[in-house]
Amino acid sequence: MRVLSALLLFLVTTLAGATTVDTSRFLQLIDYIGVDYPGAVQQGKIVSEAEYAEMREFAATVARQAAELDRQLPGLELAAQAAQLRDGIEARADSTEIARLTATMRQMVVARFDMPVTPHEAPDLARAQVLYMDNCASCHGERGQGNGPMARDLEPPPTNFLDLARYNDRTVYGLYSTISLGVEGTAMQSFAASLTESERWSLAFYVGQLAVAPDARAQGAALWPPRAEKRTLAALGDLKTLTTLTPNEAAQRFGHDGRLLMGYLRSHPQLLFEAGPAPLAFAREAVQASVQAYHDGRQDEAYRQALAAYLDGFELVEGSVAAVDRELKLEVEMAMTTYRQLIKRGAEVDAVEAQADTVLALLDRSVATITSGTLSSGAAFSGALVILLREGLEALLVIAALAAFLVKTERRDGLLFLHLGWGGALVAGVLTWIVSQYFINFSGASREITEGVAALIAMVVLFWVGFWLHSKTSAQQWKRFIEGSIHKALSTGTLWGIAGLSFIAVYREVFETILFYQAMWVQAAGDSRSAMLAGMGSAAGALAVLAWLILRYSARLPLRQFFSVTSVFMFVLAIIFAGKGVAALQEAGKLPMEPVNFPRIDFLGMYPSMEGLALQLGLMILAVVVYFGFSRKQASS
Questions:
Q1: Is residue 140 very low, low, confident or very high in pLDDT (cuts 50, 70, 90)?
Q2: In this structure, which CATH number among 1.20.120, 2.30.29, 3.30.930, 1.10.10 belongs to the domain 279-372?
Q3: Model pLDDT, residue 416
Q4: pTM for the predicted model, two decimal places
């Protein structure tokens, strides 16, 4: 008995040591600071000594509890954030900085402790209105203005739910937490015993939308379901995002439309239960369904769900993830590819489940990245610069080479065809984006197939152009080419072919580039957007200079030597497009994929896939055979 008692005592003290901090109250305290700090300090000056003293006390408590949580859970790193919060309050920092720090801590706590921050069923606002009149109106007033019959005797006074400043700094989860836990030292009692969890959530949504004006609600209604910016605003369709972001944070992440849509969805939370899940939520559910199907022996269904998790889930928001953390985006893609390959190979259930856990963890990181990540000015500039350089370089090289070819062969009239091609591609790319936003929902598979097929068509045309150019460099062929006149050789059909090649080279990049910039724009704000525009302008300038250099220095080459150099250049571009085309079709699930231990080199179109590398190697060998075959003929002649 003594041994049993000692064992029980040991277990009790051990468990108690593991849970010394009430994370719900800890989170409530963080939110309270974020909301009430503007009432204590404005423009660096104390406007309420009592409120400021309270803020300092709460910040010290948060710092103590954060340090305790860090000791219990190494790697959490909450203490550093709490210290910044405490120091910011001591320094009377701007309220926007305090709000940023509390928002970061909120997201860290929610993610690390996997806290239940969403209702299990659709909130009932009609029922909530009755509950409000029965339980809240006596203090907060019938309309929520904080002027109920009992309000005059209360200190501090009840919250005015119509106060826009407070509304913009409050999360629905924060309201739910206050209703559930109450607020010590005030008349706000806990309703955990008298109201069910569902009723408390309904009440939180009800009071959380009272400040939304009718016209703002109508504007928000026009944004649902998201069309114009579905790849960004769609994130608010995730219930966890809706309940853990403030309207101010929604505006920072998604623009003014984010604030409007949040107001509307707070008023109509049932829409999130009627509609399909947001992209990352869909991806998560699809992975879980895939694991279950594989466990049940339904391998084909497991693979189908795994593919849908990427194409109709993660891919819809990968631009938003990449805008903040490109390495995370690549990690998710690689993990999901590995997961699909394990299913296809019929791996052990344990291996598939372990990889699924890895994917789910990365998807959770992606949610946190989208909801809490904002771009600094430096990141916005470099990101905008790299995107346009990366996506536009290949297209520019093709167009510049074709332009140089037409100039060197004295067929400047053909430049019109070239410009029609790439100009039409720009228009078509923008129109495709508009159609995808407003009229037709292109699936992830459709986008990947379009990109893959376009790349492979470009590969064939580029290789043929390279072959044709090289064939003209032998002595006999060159003599025949000159005697037959360049003008006859470049027929109208050939010129339209040049237009088609320039169209394909540009079109496959335009749509993707717009999506990347769209995702970046909503992750940036203020100065970051100016930096982003500067990055785009710098990239465009760099591409223009590169095109000028190609045209200028190619003009100095003898025509025959120019043909030889350009043919090699076309072969190289064909090999790059081959790798990118295969990779796109593999992501769409239209081609098999056998991963190999090989580095990912995006600008060369090389990816760790046996099929893509094999095609590229085959093209390299064919190009070498063509090159040296004609060189041998030239030497013999």
A1: very high
A2: 1.20.120
A3: 86
A4: 0.49
